[in-house]
Amino acid sequence: MSLTGKWLLAAWQQPYLSVNLSANFMEWIYMNTVRLHQPASVDNLRLCSSQAPAPGRGEISVRVRAASLNFRDSLVVNGFFPVRDGLIPLSDAAGEVIAVGDAVTEFKTGDRVISTFHPTWPDGHIERSQLTASPGGPADGFACETVTRPATHFTAAPTNLDYAQAATLTCAGVTAWRAVVTDAGTKPGDVVVIQGTGGVSLFALQFAKACGATVIATSSSADKLQRLHELGADHVINYKEQENWAEAVVGLSGGRGADLVVEVGGPNTMAQSLQAARTGAHIAIIGAVGGFEIDTIPFAIVQAKRLRLQGVTVGSRADQSAMVRAIETNNIVPVIDSHYPLSRLGEAFAALQAGGHVGKIVIDI
Predict the structure, then answer these.
(1) Which spans in the chain are helix H?
(2) Which of these, 39, 190, 225, 273, could form a disulfide with 213 (CB 3.0-4.6 Å)?
(3) Do both 51 and 148 map to the same domain?
(4) Which CATH number is 106's domain given?
(5) How far apart are CA 96 and CA 81, in angstroms?
(6) Largest Cα–Cα distance of the chain, in whole Å?
(7) Does residue 22 register a pLDDT over 90?
(8) What is the pLDDT of residues 163-186, one digit of tens each?
(9) What's the mean per-residue pLDDT of the chain?
(10) CB–CB of 202/337 below 8 Å?
(11) CATH of the domain at 236
(12) What is the pTM of this model?
């Protein structure tokens, strides 16, 4: 049965037991949790009651206040990425530390924290085979009221953001930071191209502007282009009206092309991205909104322009901490499209898949 009707009402009324907490002790808490059952689909998201254990050595317990949706979460929920039966979805969350275990020195009760996407990647290089603990698949995520995890699975939340805003950062925010700052090293005077109004693209817009770059944004919607302009894009291009939008990028950049293209479209946009890039430019390959298979890449362009194509799979804990400092320093505020309660998680995914949102969809918990 899906998250609807009488069953939902009954499930939602399962008891949540408040307990007395101390710095190093927490009794078991009954909490509302959404689990994904197989075969994976939005209709097999089910609300239930589960328990959060007291933190052990090196662990903290966090009262989750908000989570957010990513394209990747939709792939998990719809079965594109196989996961075990009963998985708790959602990779991004913000909350408050309510208990700490022995040997935890970085956090204390009452601290505001955000989750990390790759909790086993502290900094530097890591092998892809080691990135196997991401919340929301394959590990349990944050579609629940309380979690107990190692303290290293979190960083401090930005002091200038509320829980809903902070909950948008873990995947999309860190991905954009890695693309714009860590990998591309964007600097004042650079030209950065972003595509669309998804979470990564909007964070890339905000981070690029904070770096002093000129931002050119593309979309097929006049309303979204207006919104992008309001959010700080210096130039906007309607790619439905101008299919060869690379030519427009070159023109708007004074004939030189873009220093960085944040590529999220995959086969639908890659050729234009390469043509829009200047000599020696950086192409941050992030998403695959148009699919994961590209039949051909114009290698002659890549070679002639000496382009750098860099895949981005979010980032490290150090990337996240650096991003948090930048958000605080520049008072960057994430763009939120809409809010849904945990009990309407299925509706939130439907809104994500419909594609009409501008910014992040937040789950209030």
Answers:
(1) 5-12, 71-77, 163-166, 174-177, 199-210, 222-230, 245-252, 270-276, 299-305, 317-330, 345-354
(2) 190
(3) yes
(4) 3.90.180.10
(5) 30
(6) 66
(7) no
(8) 999 999 999 999 999 999 999 999
(9) 90
(10) no
(11) 3.40.50.720
(12) 0.90
Give residue 52's pLDDT: 83
Structure tokens of 283?
């192409």
Residue that the structure tokens 């954009």 belong to:
176
CA proximity to 319, closest of 70, 71, 96, 116: 116
Query: Total domain count for the chain?
Result: 2
Could you tell me the two tokens for 55?
Answer: 């933190």
Same domain, 248 and 117: no
* Burial status of residue 230 (CB atoms within 10 A of its CB: 0-12, 13-18, 19 or more): exposed
Q: Is pLDDT of 27 > 50?
A: no
| Same domain as 183, residue 119 | no
Range of the domain at 269: 173-311
Residues 34 and 161 in one domain: yes
Q: Tokens 């650079």: give the residue.
A: 190
Task: Let me know if residue 112 belongs to a domain.
Answer: yes
**Could you read off the pLDDT of 112-162 as tens digits, one per residue?**
999 999 999 999 999 988 898 999 999 999 999 999 999 999 999 999 999
